[in-house]
Amino acid sequence: MLDKITIIGSGSWATALVKIFTESGVSVLWHVRNEETADLLNSTGHNPRYLSSVDLNRSLIFATTNTVEVIRDSELVIFAMPSAYLKATVKKFDKNLLKEIPVAVSIKSFVPGTSSTPSNFIRKYFQRGVHDVMVLGGPCHAEEIATEKYTYLTMAGNDPVLVQQIADRLSSCPYIKPVANTDPTGQEYASILKNVIAIATGIAAGLLYGDNFQSVLVSNAMREAAGFIEAVAPGSPDFYRSAYFGDLLVTAYSDFSRNRTLGKLIGRGLAASKAIQAMEMVAEGFYASKELAPLLKKVRLNTPVLNAVYRILHQHANPFNEFRLLKEQLL
Questions:
Q1: Is 40:18 a contact under the CB 8 Å cutoff?
Q2: Rounded to 5, what percent of the chain is helix, strand, coil?
Q3: What is the C-alpha to C-alpha distance for residues 61 and 166, in angstroms, rounded to an integer?
Q4: What is the pTM of this model?
Q5: 171-174: long-range pairs with CB below 8 Å, 24+
Q6: Are residues 202 and 145 both part of a single domain?
Q7: 226-273 pLDDT per residue, tens
Q8: Pairing label, strands 61-64, 77-79
Q9: Residue 261 sits in the same domain as residue 139
Q10: Is residue 331 part of a domain?
């Protein structure tokens, strides 16, 4: 039985995870960035900045900035923050503290400047084995968890017994359907690619392409994603499971999607740099598309959707012209 875990990160997704685990009866040691946030969480049970309407069970949370205290007696450590903060965050922790505790990663982008997935980065940094680091994913939005909409949550790892134990614990939360998965690499790549694809659908919406075109855009992008994942993580199971393309679809079409919102702003004429500044929260697909580009060159696949997003975001290509060319390449 999982009784005490650590969650590292204080954004909307971390807050949603704290809600899920505490409502499953699990005590959460919560590492946040500053003392003010920690004090408010402990005294009020509300995150002052993210999902602030959520009333957390104060008897089951302890928020702190102390990197030793937050690991003490923990049975599982979950990293849940934007990828841009991962490098700086792990450096705060003594590597010896995480030598024995199982670790999960719930970050949906590459680690900037490395082209490494978060799980691989964590594994190398803390010198852990392939069975020691798991991936926690959707398909889901933090905003719907806040309102307790029925949600599927996927726990993926190479240790099927441990993965199932965590999934079983989460089943205590009445609005969560946990799914155990033994393909952490495939799931993690899928969760990264879906954010880039959501930017593409947002750009299309901003350019006033209709639902008919967007359905073709997404189906082609799904084929690109499947080809890429099979190239870098051969042997992944059925991509049409919810952990893979279910997560892609909810991100591509939902108004809660930060990445789709970013794409809309760009499609409506805002420069990518200005659109990023206009966003209140991080759109991971922006950074993922940059790290993805060299990997796409290595696998030598035909990926016109992913390539178009990269050119628009990082090479200042005109979205109207890119999509005019792209629509001739879709099938």
A1: no
A2: 50, 10, 35
A3: 18
A4: 0.94
A5: 171/24, 172/23, 172/24, 172/25, 173/20, 173/21, 173/23, 173/24, 174/23, 174/148
A6: no
A7: 999 999 888 766 787 887 888 889 999 998 999 999 999 999 999 999
A8: unpaired
A9: no
A10: no
Distance of alpha carbon 17 from alpha carbon 327, whole angstroms: 39
Dist CA 202 CA 250 (whole Å): 13
Strand 61-64, strand 151-156: pairing: unpaired
Three-state DSSP class for 142?
A: helix
Q: How many domains does the chain have?
A: 2
Look at residue 179 and give its three-state secondary structure: strand
182, 201, 232 — which closes off a domain?
A: 182
The partner residues of 27 in beta bridges, in order of sequence, read 4
Tell whether 149 and 246 lie within a shared domain.
Answer: no
For residue 70, is it within any domain?
yes
Strand (E) positions, the chain?
A: 4-8, 27-31, 61-64, 77-79, 103-105, 133-137, 151-156, 176-181
What are the residue ranges of helices labelled H in 83-182? Answer: 86-90, 118-125, 142-146, 160-170
Diameter of the chain measured on Cα atoms: 58
On whether both 27 and 159 belong to a single domain, the answer is: yes
Is residue 138 over pLDDT 90? no
Domain shared by 19 and 49, yes or no = yes
**Tokens matching residue 264:** 């809309």
Return the pLDDT at 238: 73
End of a domain among 122, 155, 182?
A: 182
Q: Which of 243-257, 274-288, 305-319 has the highest mean pLDDT?
A: 305-319
**117-136: per-residue pLDDT in tens?**
999 999 999 999 888 999 99
**Residue 228 maps to which CATH number?**
1.10.1040.10
Q: Report the pLDDT averaged over residues 314-330.
A: 96
Sheet strand arrangement including 77-79: 61-64, 27-31, 4-8, 77-79, 103-105, 133-137, 151-156, 176-181
Its domain, for residue 53, covers 4-182
